[in-house]
Amino acid sequence: MSETLVSINRLFKIFGPGAQNALAHLRQGADPAQLFARHNWSVALNDISLTVNRGEIFVLVGLSGSGKSTLLRTVNRLIAPSDGEIYFNGAAMSALSDAELIALRRHDMSMVFQSFALLPTRTVLDNAAFGLELAGVDVRQRHRQAMAVLEQVGLAQVARQLPYQLSGGMQQRVGLARALAVNPTLLLMDEAFSALDPINRREMQDLLLDLQAQRQRTLIFVTHDIEEALRIGSRIAIMEQGKVIQIGTAEEIINAPANAYVRRFFSGIDTSRYVLAENFAGAFGHPATEGAHDHTF
Ligand SMILES: Nc1ncnc2c1ncn2[C@@H]1O[C@H](COP(=O)(O)OP(=O)(O)OP(=O)(O)O)[C@@H](O)[C@H]1O
Predict the structure, then answer these.
(1) Residues lining ligand 1, CB < 6 A?
(2) N or C end of the chain: which has fewer CB within 10 A?
């Protein structure tokens, strides 16, 4: 039986003035497009409930504007929801004080961004150690921990270099190392590999799966690339216009897409390898991806 780490319960997020009024309209069945046209209310999350289990890579996938990033950012409360609740380790996020939230983000929930967000004047080692520095870990200890993680991601050789001396793929490894160094309970990754070229992107996906095979972490991973989702996701949630349309393993979604929107994601890609790979490798194994191409929509 899987153990729940994150539980999202009837979550709404509406951007724009007077979100509470928008909620009342939504509950009476108003069309979000009309609410935007009439009141400039943007319904980013529209009644979302789901759970993320310990040890899984939970992927959020959907078209641009479907609400993926907003949902990810409500998990660590960089964005406060308009309504609903998120439970982390059984505790309601809305009940945390600002200080508790900051501590939680530093110790329990790390985030990796598309833009790498490295500090340009600090070495790779100090960048990897930055989360530990914020968490108050002393310099020798944080360098020891950061070095161990740099070894895991294959960057020990460049620990004394500055970020600009590295390729984009290597810079994103530093971003990942920084997130992993604090040994978080939950890793939030927002289009983390989307700025990389296809080869580096594939390498980062492989690295993530290798790290996961060594030690299962819990990840929520946002992407708009369905092949990336199929390749790395233990389970995938497909989002459309602020709603979760379907949740399942790659195989479940491929075998029984919930609607035409979901089916559209698979047009032009060879889904058979993901179904077969799932049978061979199990939830955390490497899918066979020989000849797979990037399919971004
Ligand atoms: N700060 C904001 N103010 C107003 N509207 C916003 C804000 N942030 C997001 N939105 C709107 O909320 C909706 C969901 O946006 P979100 O960025 O979560 O989608 P996404 O699926 O992550 O898209 P992308 O792949 O383009 O990043 C969009 O309609 C967007 O315009």
Answers:
(1) 15, 42, 44, 62, 64-70, 224
(2) N
